[in-house]
Amino acid sequence: MLNRIVGKEIRNSLSSYKCSITRVLTTLELIVGKEMRHNLFSYKFSIITILTTILILVSIFIMYLDYCLARENYEILRSSTYAIPLTSEGISEATPVVIPPTPLSIFAKGLDENLCRSYERGFGGGVSVNSNRQSVNNLFKLFTVPDLLYVIKVILSLCAMLFSFDIVSGEKETGTLRQSLSNSLKRPILIIGKWIGGFTSFILPFFVAVLLGTAFVTLKPTVDMSPQNWAKLGLFLLSSVIYLSVFFSLGLLISCLTHQSSLSLVISLFVWTILVFVIPNLGNILARQLVRIPTVQQLDLRREQIQIRKGIEVNRPQTTMYERMEALERFNSENEMLGEDYRNRFNRLVTISKNITRISPAAAFTFQATDIMGTGMLEERKLKRAVRQYMHSEANSPAFSYQRSSFREVLGRGGLSNCLILILFNVLFFTGAYVAFLRYDAR
Amino acid sequence: MLKTIIAREFLNNILDLRFIVGLVLCVIITVACTIILSHDYGKELADYNIRVNLQDDFLSNYATRGRISGMVPHQKPPERFRPLIIGISGNENSKSFDDNPLPILFPSLDFLFIVTIIMSLLAILFSYDAITGERQRGTLRLVIANSISRTTILFGKLVGGAASLLIPFILSLLLGVLYINLNPNIQWDGLAWVELVLLTVASITFIMLFYLLGLMVSTFSRYSATSILSCLFLWVLLILVIPNVCPYISAQLRRVPSIRETERQSEEIGQAYDEVHQQRRKQVVNKFRSAYGGLFSKLESLGFGRILDDEIDDREKVGGLAAADPQFRTMVDAFRHELDQVSSEVRGAERQEVDKLWGDLNTKVAAQTKLAKNLACISPLANFVYVARDLTGTGLRSLQYFEKTKSEYRKLFWRYVSKKVEDARKNDPTFRRDTFLDLSDYSRFEFKEEALRGKLGEVLPYWGILVLFNVVFFVAAFAGFMRYDVR
Predict the structure, then answer these.
(1) Any CB–CB contact under 8 A between B37 and chain A?
(2) Domains in chain A: how many in total?
(3) Which residues contact A80 (CB under 8 A, 6 or more apart)?
(4) Cα–Cα distance, B82 to B89 (Å, whole number)
């Protein structure tokens, strides 16, 4: 008897839950559908879709050609030889240390050009670098690299904000918000539905364009994508979606805080400028002020002088073998200490600069993307350490071999911390938008 | 009437929220940027002084004939305009292993950035609804219904809007310059101030260009919403896309062989000429063999005239024989003479070809850079960057100029050192490569900025393009507004 009653009650409540869930889902579907239709037919949608599609395809194509150039350059550098200066058995020849460019640099070039320079044993145990790029076009220094990372970081983030800046304030102006809310529609459902609908209609064209570009590039025989690289590319795309959703939520938040769409546009554009350009670029210089670090020129000058002094002391006549050895030891340790000190300071600089700039989602995304793709600061540090170790070993040791960080390594070395920051921003902005919308005056 | 319209437009803009937001943003960013960069300049200057002193100390302690080549004291001082504009780094190939790669990921923020990104965006925001907004509110109709010509209205909007737009810019620039002026580390001479004024005028040209762009788009659209989207679309293309894509396009259109490849080719040329050389020598030897017969085989038996070696094995014996036999002597002299001629001919041709190869590479590089530069001229940003950088000595031109003055100084320094060495040799017969040289009275390297005339010659064409853009956009806006349907 009791069992039956309890069972019935449970069934009842379950079915009512089911009912309400289906009701919520249907409303949500309705709102998402409406939002998407609304977007699809707008001028904004067509212009942004055309812009992003063209940009993404052009960027991937150009960076593919650039990758081919880098590849050719690598082949030339690899087959060349250079003379090692000042070894004990006179001048001997060696091949420079050089690593191949990664096909992922098509999508996020990052520091790849820096990494793919050739490293040679320099004067007195130092390392000299040589880029000998095929293209010695000086104008590259004036402008930025137009890779997919740049397109997403700068242009698509702007587009995301353009999609969302008038979601609420625009509807208020046209008067439809009042009508929607006068029905039995709950505000949370409305805002969630708007977010889902708006973001989907924004992100779909992006995905189509990226897939097209990726298909084009990966079908080329020169691009050798390993399964590792596919996984990295997938993670990159996932984090770029998270990044774009941060800006979408931010636009929504601004839209919920303002009552005119022109005002929310102005604020959105300024916030975008600050987040994408000002904080990362200014934070970088700011970090330099906080760490006392000599310039590279000074470091190189000091090193050169140590080498010359070493040459003088060691070759001075009327010294015993023991004194010479001692002098050699002293200078070598002095040189070593100089490098060690510089590296410590430099690592501090990088850490501080990372922490300052991470207030901006754009910087967090840049670190995240370049680290995943193996063209970032993590890779740079790893490569430099490997090169240094190799250079310190004997001149006739086996050939230099280097593997870029694997997928697992990237994840293991805190590669996801930046992703977490992005998610945190997203949650923060969306919650802000949600709360602001609950209190929004729709009249 | 014009005055009324200007005053109204000005007042309207100033009371708008975007003016306040723009003003606050502009002032904060410019001042923060100037303070940080001035501090950075101070650090750079200190580092430069340390480097100069290091080299000075070193020269006064360790200068010897054999070691001097690595110690020529020419350090590059930080650019004068560093507190405003960060210069571009030097030659890519001479970069160091330990250099800092962070600026590659995040290009630095400076005055150029503030003008090109923030001010241009602000300019568009000021003008995108100048016409469409008034049409939508219905005020445009009322104004036109009075006896005012459309030209007056457009001019009024242009002048009033521009005046209100330039307030944030001028104000923040003044604050920044005030800070620079008060900073004891930074000493600007008259030329720098002239350059600053020119830079300001160029910036105003650039900002006005975007104001006119917004005005033009506004006269061609019906609604503010479409107008702002079209404006932003153009802005993204002109500022963020075209300048960055152009160098890559030109790198594909004009291929340049790599430096290593050229090195390899010049080595190949050298080998080819070695062979030619050898053959020519063989011919000479054969000629002499047939001409002199026995006498020449005597010479050959001494190891002389062997195909490749220039060295004579038995120089003394040959000398002895030549002294004994005048005929032998004439033969040896003629033989030597002919060999010398052959080798100078062959080596001359080789050098010519190698020089041509490198010259070719340089012209190709120059052609590629020029193509990229001209392609990028479609974008006002590129034009403005050339003007601003070359004017203030923070661009490619000043890098080249520095290299030139550096090599001139090198020559001067070497002349000085060789004179010192000669003197030392006279005074001290035991002078050797590692004897200490007293170089205390050498003339210090001082980098002087290039004269304004040369810079202006470089800059004016690009400035002209900027002005041309202004004119084109204004004419288009004018034409658009003349046929604008105000209903």
Answers:
(1) yes
(2) 1
(3) A95, A96, A118, B260, B263, B264
(4) 12
| Tokens of residue A345, six digits | 């300071």
Residue B134 CA to residue B367 CA, distance in Å, equals 49
The residues, ordered by sequence, that sit 6+ positions from B433 with a Cβ below 8 Å of its Cβ are B64, B65, B66
ipTM of the complex: 0.85
How many Å separate Cα A228 from the centre of its chain? 18
Which residue is it, tokens 């504009």?
B85
The answer to whether A362 contacts chain B (CB < 8 Å) is: no
Which residues in chain B are closer than 8 Å to A135, comparing Cβ atoms?
A: 251, 256, 368
Helices (H), B91-189: 102-105, 111-113, 120-127, 132-137, 139-145, 150-182
| Measured distance CA(B174)–CA(B182) in Å, rounded | 12
Nearest chain B CA: its distance from A266 CA (Å): 6
- Amino acid B39 reads H
Q: Which domain holds residue A245?
A: 42-438
pLDDT in tens, A313-334: 777 776 777 888 888 888 888 8
Whether A375 and A105 have beta carbons less than 8 Å apart is answered as yes
B196 closest CA partner among B14, B392, B424? B392
Chain A residues lying within 8 Å of B33, measured CB to CB: 282
Residue A34 lies in a domain: no
Query: Do B102 and A142 count as a contact with CB atoms less than 8 A apart?
Result: no
Residues A246 and A159: beta-carbon distance below 8 Å: no
A176-179, long-range: CB < 8 A, 24+ apart: A177/A442, A178/A442, A178/A443
- CA distances from residue B113 to A361, B24, B39, B191 in whole angstroms, order as listed: 20, 17, 18, 23
Provide CB contacts within 8 A for B69, sequence distance 6+. none
Interface test with B, best of A134, A136, A301 (most B CBs within 10 A): A136
**A4 lies in some domain:** no
Q: By the CB < 8 Å criterion, does A27 face chain B?
A: no
Angle at A191 between CA A188 and CA A194, to 5 degrees: 145
In a domain, A104, yes or no: yes
Answer yes or no: is A106 within a domain. Answer: yes
Contact A134, A72 (CB under 8 A): yes
CB contact at 8 A, A277 and B109: yes
- Mean pLDDT, contiguous 10-residue spans, chain B (487 residues): 89 89 91 92 90 85 73 81 79 62 79 91 91 89 88 91 92 94 85 92 95 94 89 91 86 78 83 88 83 76 53 60 76 81 88 88 84 88 91 86 88 86 81 74 82 89 95 94 88
Q: Please report the sign of the dihedral spanned by the C-alpha atoms of residue A64, residue A69, residue A74, residue A75.
A: positive
Residue found by looking up tokens 């050089």 in the block: A98
d(CA A176, CA A283): 43
Gap between the Cα atoms of B81 and B100, Å rounded: 22
Q: CB-hemisphere CA count at 13 Å for B162?
A: 20
Which positions ≥6 away from A32 have C-beta within 8 Å? Answer: A193, A196, A197, A200
Q: What is the pLDDT of residues B370-415, one digit of tens each?
A: 888 888 888 999 999 999 999 988 888 888 888 889 888 888 888 8
- Environment class of residue B333 by beta-carbon count within 10 Å: exposed (0-12), middle (13-18) or buried (19+)? exposed
